[in-house]
Design brief:
The chain has about 400 residues and is of the alpha/beta class. Helix content is about 55%, strand content about 10%. α2 packs across α8 and α5 runs antiparallel to α6.
């Protein structure tokens, strides 16, 4: 007869303190460190430049260090979004200054300031953990901070918050990292409640589960839905692991020759009804890709702006010396191609973790053998599921 371990409950409780394994790769960690370095340096430099090195306003307030961790190391968190840092820091600064002026006891003012800051940030949907430290700084920052009064809200808090956010926006854009996350697109009325997220799961299901939660989940609903879709794709790919890319690739789609003119490339993409195609050289080696949006070179500025852009396109292209697709194609990398013998499971991260719409399939000679789109992947898996039924019939 087995007896329960006397201290099993305590052991399990203590094991709860062990952090879970971090899935973030080292290049991403180093990218976050470099971003924090530049963000803090630029924020402090902007304060010194605008206010002068002899100003009584601190060059950096401590809560900006905590905001930096979120903005650069956890940019997908809802707590790290632009409205969170700007709204959270400003609201907390106002609350902290008000409590300092209304309550004589520093301890009482500090406790009330943090409590009110959390409540207001929750109401205004700008919860930002470092903002609690902003409220404390306004109360416990000493005579120099108290002397600023509500000026503390504008400088240093608002000034440094905007400077840090600006550096994060620029840095993430330069390094090709998506930021900000979430936002208006998840409140888009065009997204119906019965919009499918994954097999058997709809947008309404995700919203209903999140509303029932009694604790804060540090993930954007859109990112959660994307994870569900990617997990579904991974499960499908595992199920159909015997299929390889050569089995499902399309040979009918024509790639774009590097020597094609820009107008010729536009016609080729429009004729095949796709938004992006690989670009090949004379030896049928993939040298990059070209997207229809890049060839259009238009902006959302109304019909007048689009008409002007179309009319001026030939002169603009001639002015910069661009005459062929090979001169404007996005260079190929190892993530834009796949071997014909590779399992379709390897397609999942290529499609799910980026905006990629097609993947070039290479033969044994590293030449283009075919093209796989998301539609090809789905159709190939469907044909595979129907094949045993046809044989049985």
């Amino acid at each position: 007869m087995a007896y329960p371990e006397p201290h099993g409950g305590i052991t399990r409780w203590l094991l709860g303190f062990v952090p879970s394994q971090v899935a973030v790769r080292w290049p991403e960690r180093l990218r976050a460190c470099a971003g924090a370095l530049l963000g803090i340096a630029l924020t402090g430099g902007a304060t010194a430049f605008l206010l002068g090195s002899t100003s009584t306003i601190p060059m950096l307030v401590a809560p900006m260090g905590a905001s930096t961790v979120l903005l650069f190391a956890a940019p997908a968190s809802p707590l790290a979004q632009p409205w969170s840092i700007i709204g959270g820091n400003i609201v907390s600064a106002v609350v902290g200054v008000a409590c300092t002026q209304w309550i004589a006891s520093p301890l009482g003012a500090a406790a009330l300031a943090v409590s009110l800051a959390i409540g207001l940030m929750s109401i205004l949907r700008c919860l930002h953990p470092p903002s609690g430290a902003v409220a404390l700084t306004a109360v416990l920052g000493g005579p120099s901070i108290h002397a600023m009064g509500y000026g503390f809200v504008l400088a240093p808090v608002a000034l440094q918050s905007f400077a840090l956010l600006g550096s994060a926006l620029v840095y993430h854009a330069i390094t090709g990292h998506r930021y900000p996350h979430g936002g208006v697109q998840h409140a888009d009325p065009a997204i119906s409640d019965d919009a499918p997220v994954a097999a058997g799961i709809t947008h309404a299901d995700v919203e209903a589960v999140l509303r029932r939660r009694t604790e804060w989940l540090d993930i954007d609903p859109g990112d959660l839905e994307a994870l569900l879709r990617e997990t579904e794709w991974q499960a499908y790919a595992r199920t159909f692991s015997e299929l390889n890319c050569g089995d499902i690739m399309s040979r009918r789609m024509r790639p774009v020759p590097a020597t094609a003119t820009l107008d010729g490339a536009r016609r080729l993409l429009n004729g095949q009804g796709v938004a992006v195609l690989p670009v090949i050289d004379a030896s049928r080696r993939v040298i990059g890709s070209v997207a229809l949006e890049d060839l259009r070179q238009t902006r959302h500025g109304g019909w007048a702006a689009m008409l002007v852009a179309v009319l001026l396109r030939p002169w603009r292209e001639a002015a910069v010396g661009i005459s062929t697709v090979g001169q404007t194609a996005t260079r190929a990398d190892e993530h834009g191609t796949i071997d014909a013998g590779a399992s379709i499971a390897e397609l999942v991260p290529l499609f799910a973790q980026s905006d990629r719409q097609c993947v070039a399939v290479l033969d044994a000679n590293r030449q283009l053998a075919g093209i796989i789109t998301q539609a090809d992947l789905i159709a190939g898996m469907y044909r595979h599921t129907r094949a045993p039924q046809r044989v049985a019939a």
